[in-house]
Structure formats: C-alpha cells, structure tokens
Amino acid sequence: MAGNDVVTNLRAQLKGAHDWLEGTLVDVTDEVANTLSEGNVASIGANYAHVVTAEDYFVNGLLTGGMPIMMSSSAGISVPPPFGGWAEWGRTVHVDIATQQAYAQQVYAATDAWLATKSDADLSVEAETPIGKMPLGAFIGLWILNAHTHAGEISCLKGLRGMKGYPV
Question: CA 28 → CA 94, 151, 155, distances in Å?
C-alpha cells in the first residue's frame, strides 16, 4: 500500500517475531511448558502466554476499546495474567500449549488486520500505554522486542533441558 512503508515494515517485523517465537516452541510439550527451573524464573509456558496475552490486551482491548480474544475463547491458561508484575503468575500458571498456540494464531491475525488499517501517520500519534504516553509505532516496536526477548528466555530454558532452543 503506497504511503504505508512503515506500517508494511512493522507488519513484516511482527510476523517475523511471531514466527520466531512459534519456531522456538517446537517440541515443547505441556510437561516441558509447565516445568519450573531453579531460581526465580517463569516457566516456558508462562513466557509464551505473557507475550501473546499482552499483545491481545494491547490490540483488542487497550487500543481498539474492544474485548481481548482471551475473554471470549480459551487462551489455554489456568489463570488470566495480572496487570503489572507477573513473576508469581509466571511460576504458577498452567499452560496448555496446543490451546495457547491456537489462541496465539487468532491474536496474530487480529494484530495484523488491525495494523493493516493504520497509516504511517497514525504511528506517530501519541498513545496512552501501560508504561506511559508514546508514539504508537514505538509501542508496537516494544511488542516486537517483547516477543524476541521471551523467545530468548524460552530458548535458554529449553537448552537447560537438553533441547534445541532457537528454530535454526
């Protein structure tokens, strides 16, 4: 779409982040997803659920004023995520990986559809976010960073279990 170079780029980056996260989850079973490691670290399933539920909340709730998908269909989590600090939740939530992955695909599709309606100019508009006011494009950039960061945590936790971490 002409005049939407930044939007097109962000859509591609989000797709890449989603694909990388999903690829990192290859071979993760419910048992692996919900096993806790030593120390104060969230489970693989909680890291994954954090990324997906946050994106769902931001797009389908906060930015559109609608209802997050997790409110109308199963997100595959035993307890909804809290606002703010999620350390305790990350060590207690149970995640059904297959259900979470199906839910994630719905969230990714909704995000892409919503972002496809935006213009490059829309991305410079200040948005009220949970971490303060910032340009919408910068806020979306944080979602990309969040997906990659948690894919790294998942990869590390898989490696500690003798599994292959990243998809390549």
Answer: 14, 13, 11
Q: Could you tell me the CA-to-CA distances from 109 to 30, 70, 87 in Å, in that order?
A: 24, 14, 28
How big is the CA angle at 9 (ends 108 and 12), to the nearest 5 degrees?
A: 35
Task: Let me know: does 96 contact 163? Beta carbons within 8 Å.
Answer: no
From CA 25, how far away is CA 110, in angstroms rounded?
21
CA distance 41 to 46: 10
**Global pTM value:** 0.94
What is the Cα–Cα distance from 19 to 68, expressed in whole angstroms?
A: 21
- Which residues lie across from 133 on neighbouring strands? 128
Q: For position 82, what pLDDT does the model report? A: 87
3 — pLDDT class (breaks 50, 70, 90): low
Q: Which tokens belong to 45?
A: 């399933």
Q: Which residue has the tokens 């670290």?
A: 41
Mean pLDDT over all residues of the chain? 94
In the chain, alpha helices (H) = 5-24, 30-34, 44-56, 87-92, 97-116, 136-160
3-class SS letters over 33-72:
HHCCCCCCCCCHHHHHHHHHHHHHHHHHHHHCCCCCHHHC
